[in-house]
């Protein structure tokens, strides 16, 4: 069994896309810009909030000053509405509770601002994680491994016994950049081929498959002869 598991947030632990899309489209309406579909927002998330607002902003609103104002508007709305439609993915709460009961040390590492990451974990998964970290000033966003390495050090985790779990090629690269084994989950916001192209060691199509991967720690499943 892996002794430490570090999870991405959006698209991995929580289905947050409806609230992120609502915040983005609120800003678009305020600014008189074209709104985007939820599917379009799925392709935008995962690289930090500044990158997100840049992607839905039109070409004439890309100056640093304008993007900073757009981000301020986005964060103000999202702060008030980040939990309106967000929900855990099926089977995830039960899986996390079982792993914690069995002594697995778990953490969250997200490109979402630390303020929002912490609030969402306190609301949906109180008492589950030994460490929760979002984007902090001075730490580069994923796939840079600096933040992930810092979490490993803070937890005293052995990289050989740690699994990183995420739903995007960015997550896969982050884990690999930190020297970790990576499990890519397919219920998130990226198509399966893009995950396969990034070459994770493990892929999981359900919470049950993810739990099995954690418990096996790379060992083959045993087949009973009875």
Overall description:
With 226 residues, the protein is an alpha/beta fold. The chain folds into 2 domains: 4-15 and 86-216, 3-Layer(aba) Sandwich (Rossmann fold), CATH 3.40.50.1000; 17-81, DNA polymerase, domain 1, CATH 1.10.150. The protein is 46% helix and 15% strand. It is built from 10 helices and 8 strands. It has helices spanning 17-31, 38-44, 49-56, 64-81, 92-101, 114-124, 146-155, 169-177, 192-197, 207-216, and strands at 4-7, 14-15, 87-88, 105-113, 131-135, 162-166, 181-185, 202-204. The strands form 2 sheets. The protein has a 6-stranded parallel beta sheet with strand order 5-4-1-6-7-8, with helices on both faces. The longest helix is centred in the first third of the chain and has 18 residues, at 64-81. The chain is globular. Mean pLDDT is 95; it is low at 220-226.
């Amino acid at each position: 069994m892996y002794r430490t598991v570090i999870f991405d947030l959006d698209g991995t632990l929580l289905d947050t896309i409806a609230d992120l899309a609502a915040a983005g489209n609120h800003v678009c309406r305020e600014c008189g810009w074209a709104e985007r579909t939820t599917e379009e927002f799925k392709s935008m998330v995962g690289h930090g909030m500044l990158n997100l607002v840049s992607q839905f902003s039109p070409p004439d609103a890309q100056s640093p000053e304008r993007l900073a104002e757009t981000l301020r508007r986005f964060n103000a709305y999202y702060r008030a509405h980040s939990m309106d439609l967000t929900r855990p993915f099926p089977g995830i709460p039960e899986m996390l509770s079982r792993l914690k009961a069995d002594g697995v040390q778990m953490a969250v590492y997200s490109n979402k601002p630390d303020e929002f990451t912490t609030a969402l974990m306190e609301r949906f998964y109180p008492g589950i994680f030994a460490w929760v970290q979002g984007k902090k000033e001075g730490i580069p966003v994923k796939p840079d491994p600096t933040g992930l390495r810092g979490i490993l050090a803070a937890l005293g985790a052995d990289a050989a016994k740690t699994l990183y779990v995420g739903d995007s090629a960015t997550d896969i690269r982050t884990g690999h950049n930190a020297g970790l084994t990576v499990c890519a989950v397919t219920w998130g916001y990226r198509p399966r081929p893009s995950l396969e192209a990034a070459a994770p060691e493990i892929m999981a199509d359900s919470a049950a498959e993810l739990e099995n991967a954690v418990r096996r720690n790379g060992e083959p499943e045993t087949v009973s002869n009875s």
